[in-house]
Amino acid sequence: MTVSASVDKLLQLIEFGIHISGIKELKQLMEKVLKTAQDLTYAKMAVFYLVTDDSLELVARRNTHTFHIPDNFHEKKLIPISPNRLAGFCVLNSKIVNISAADRQGLVDTYDLEHELGLLNLQLFHSMLLVPLINQNRKILGVLQLIDSTNNEGDFIPFSESIIPVMESLASQSAVAIQNAQLSRDITSTYYETIFRLSLAAECRDKETANHIFRVSSYSKIIARYAGFTKSFQDMIQYSSPMHDVGKLGIPDSILFKTGKLTPEERILMQSHTEIGWKIFEGSDYEILQMAGRVALSHHEKYDGSGYPKGLKGNIIPVEGRIVAIADVFDALCSIRRYKFSFPTDQVFMNLKSETGHHFDPILLNAFFMGLEEILEVKKKYTVSES
Ligand SMILES: [Fe+2]
Ligand SMILES: [Fe+2]
């Protein structure tokens, strides 16, 4: 490598380090790692594997310009971490494997090349570089596979030995960033599961189901998207809407499970689940929990002011409450509840439409109907026998 080429690669590495430290999303991170690895080595293809239990899982692939994440079962590839696999060898020995076309034939006897990694036809590769992703505790998180290095003329050449230290540096920076992204993903999943379980505790008291919570959460997100809200608002409403009835935890069993008609006093008590929900989240410093409080308080308000607990009207009702009201009523009308059987879908749509401007915000109801196809997909997927 010439001095200017070395400096150039060093600058690319520094830029890479600065860039990835700010990326928390795993998919985005993998794309950046694969692209930089290709830019540094002029490889035609780059593949990302993560260690899962005793295997390596193909999690992302990048051809010259296109990035791809396997999203169905058939595309997912699991490679056992064993010494007769090149990637397995790379993991077990914690070292880079550099193979040229000349080496290829010699490898056939030792390695199970037929089933090796992401290559469709192994006999066609010209060169391959396997780089283990090792974190600061010497733990291997995955493998970066680069295929077919080229020169300026586009001819296939072996991966240069001088690129190895550069790739080692890229791999160790990537391993730390991936570890952080996985941690942040775990925190988000734990958080969502906690919310979900808390919501379920409340809904179980009302003989509701986990699917109801999931559907309302998904419908709310779809409505928000079709109404033009930002991705972060959509995520916030997805995570806060499951808690709309969490205040039912504070309603006595004698009222919650009463089979006959509620007395006016009991009705007022029942309606107080909105304010109890608000009190649970009041004063939280976290935006999602603040939104959960607003949703809990306002999901029974009606656009024309005839709802409860405050009788708020129109746009004075927090928008998240107006969205969840549509999602929750739609799901209630479609589901079998204690006192009634579900309505046919056509009748549900007519009921919703007849409430535009009365119970529901017309613009948001319009967004609901714009997203109807997706809403019905969620309904189909998350409706099991609830009898
Ligand atoms: Fe409610
Ligand atoms: Fe509900």
UniProtKB/TrEMBL annotation:
SMART domains: GAF, HDc
Name of the featured protein: HD-GYP domain-containing protein
Taxonomic superkingdom: Bacteria
InterPro entries, per the entry: Cyclic_di-GMP/3'3'-cGAMP_PDE (IPR052020), GAF (IPR003018), GAF-like_dom_sf (IPR029016), HD/PDEase_dom (IPR003607), HD_GYP_dom (IPR037522)
All residue ranges annotated as the HD-GYP domain in the record: 187-384
Pfam families: GAF, HD_5
Organism lineage string: Bacteria, Candidatus Schekmaniibacteriota
Coiled-coil parts of chain: none
